[in-house]
Structure formats: structure tokens, C-alpha cells
Amino acid sequence: MKANWKLFTGLSIFYILMAVVYYYVGGEAVGITGMTLAACLAGMVGFYLWFTQKRIGFDIPSDNINAEIADDAGELGFYSPHSWWPLPVALSATAMGLGLIIGWWLTLIALGSLVISIIGMVTEYEKPVSVSSH
Amino acid sequence: MTSTSVSAHHKITRPNMVAVGTIVWLSSELMFFAALFAMYFTTRAVQGPKIWLQSTEILNIPFAAINTTVLVLSSVTCQFGVFAAERYQARRTASLINVKYWGMREWFAMTFLMGGFFIAGQIYEYASLVTEGLALSTNAYGSVFYIATGFHGLHVTGGLIAFLIVMVRIAKARRFTQGQATTAIVVSYYWHFVDVVWIALFASIYLIK
């Protein structure tokens, strides 16, 4: 992650410099705000990656020039093998957007169904003990 | 499962993907708010100082300051909830009065109430501003004020829904493990982010004017 945080922090410094240059050549408010907050955008990711590297306390394989591909093996995270829930989530989000054109009533209904389908999606694998896994 | 695959299973080779993904998404949210800040400052520059002076004097700054304080403190209670989640402690182990033994659920419920207080205060503030003659369509100041604070209020409301979903998830979970803790941590990232954005909005709208 060394390369990653250095890249993002470098971008952040670049944006700060550009914001200062832009200010001195007589830039207006949008550009100065935009570039300063773009520096925050890159700086936030850079800081988080730097902080995470400090916290895990060792170099991950991609920082080690002698590492093998196999060294990076390991758990990526939990991925759902099969689920119907993304479909109602997407349909509700679509209906919410369409509601802005058709009428506010549709947006409100879609907001309710969006919350219900998000709860369904995130709790799908949180089953009580009695239900067998898989 | 052989012993080698078990040890490979638990080996940490990378940071938590959900947490990194959340940070990257929040950085894009930052640019959304950058557009709102840019809108605010441009409109102020184009409209001239007169309309700003007239409109900002009806703002109730002490009230907004109290509201801001509650939101900032809710970040603190949220962080205590994260500490509980990192101990894998879902609920309290002693009576409700004994704050020291609170679990993640109690801290997040506390955060939820404080966030709800902020939203209620925001609605009260909007109502009193409208009665004093500042609405969304009154002038350019009304538009940028309600769009900037309104989008932030929608984000806080989304955060409140996220807290509810986390608490539902923890209540349904068989065991409190890494997965549940990650959910709690990324929701706290979002909450801290929304809080920091509000501090910047408060400074721009209420203090700098």
C-alpha cells in the first residue's frame, strides 16, 4: 500500500498547488473550491491507506519486490453466491428516480420499498440458529 | 479442511475491502458536496454582498450552534459504539444507567437519537425561516441555503436509516463476528464524514456568511 498512499497524497499536494496557482492568476470561487476539495478527495483516500498500513503493521505482498503471486492469496471478503435482493433494490431506486419526473407520490412509495429491500439484502445471511446454513 | 488451508484462511494479506471501498465512495461524496459549496460561493460572488447581508441576519445562529454541538457529540457516541463493535459486544452487560458497560446497540441507539434531534432541529429551523419570509424560491440566498443544508439533511437521514439497518442486522445475526463489526465501522465512517461536512457547511453559512 506504500505506492497507493504515496500516489493519492501526491495527487492531493498537486491539487493544493494548483488551487494556489489558480487563486493567484485571478481564479473565481468555483475553481478554488473545487480544487481545494479535490485535494481533500485524494488526501482522504491517501490518509486512510497510510493509516491502514500503519495499523496492520506490516508490508502487504504488493509492496514487496520479491513477493510471489501466491503470497497475495487469502480471504477477499464475503460474496453472496446467489441472491434475488439486488433486483428489488435496483427497481426501487429506478422508481425513485422516475418519481421525480412522474410525481412525488411514486418517490415516496419507492423510498419505502427501497428501505425494505435494502434491509432484506443486508440481513439475507443473518439467519437464526435453527436454519441450516447453505 | 486441512490445517494449511485454515491458516491461509486467516492470514491477513490486504486491508478490509469494505472499509477501503467505503472511503473511496465517501471521497466521491465529498465532490458532491464540493459542487454545493462551489454553488454557494459563486452565487454569493455573483449576487453581491447586499442580498447576503439582508438574508443572513434572520438566521438563528445560537440555535444552529446547539444543533451542531449535538451532531458533533453524536460522532463521539458513534465512535464508542465502534469500540464496542471491535470488542464484538452487541449489547450491554449491566444496567442501562451504567454507561461503561454499554454495547454497540446502546451507543448506536444514543447516536440515532442525537441524529434525530439534529433533523428535528433542522425542520424547526426551516419552519421558522419560512415564517420569517425566507423560502426556497424567495431569492438566490434562499435557494442555495435550502439546497446546501437540505442535501446535508438528506444525508443525515440516510445515516439514521443506516443505523437502524445495522441494529436490525446485529439483532438477526447468529454471532457477532468480523462481518457485523465491519458494517458498524463503515456506517461510523459515513457518520463522521457527514459530521465533518456539516462543520464545514456551518462555518460557511452561519459563521463566515
Write a structural description.
The complex is a heterodimer of chains A (134) and B (209). Helices cover 65% and strands 0% of the residues of chain A. Chain A has helices at 2-24, 29-56, 86-102, 104-122. In chain A, helix 3 (86-102) packs antiparallel against helix 4. Chain A is flat and about 50 Å long. The model of chain A has no long low-confidence stretch (mean pLDDT 88). By secondary structure, chain B is an all-alpha fold. Chain B has a single domain (17-207), classed as Four Helix Bundle (Hemerythrin (Met), subunit A), CATH 1.20.120.80. Helices cover 79% and strands 0% of the residues of chain B. Chain B contains 7 helices and no strands. In chain B, helix 2 packs antiparallel against helix 6 (140-172), helix 2 runs parallel beside helix 7 (178-208) and helix 5 (104-131) runs antiparallel to helix 6. The N and C termini of chain B lie far apart (64 Å). At the A-B interface, helix 2 and helix 4 of A face helix 1, helix 2 and helix 6 of B.
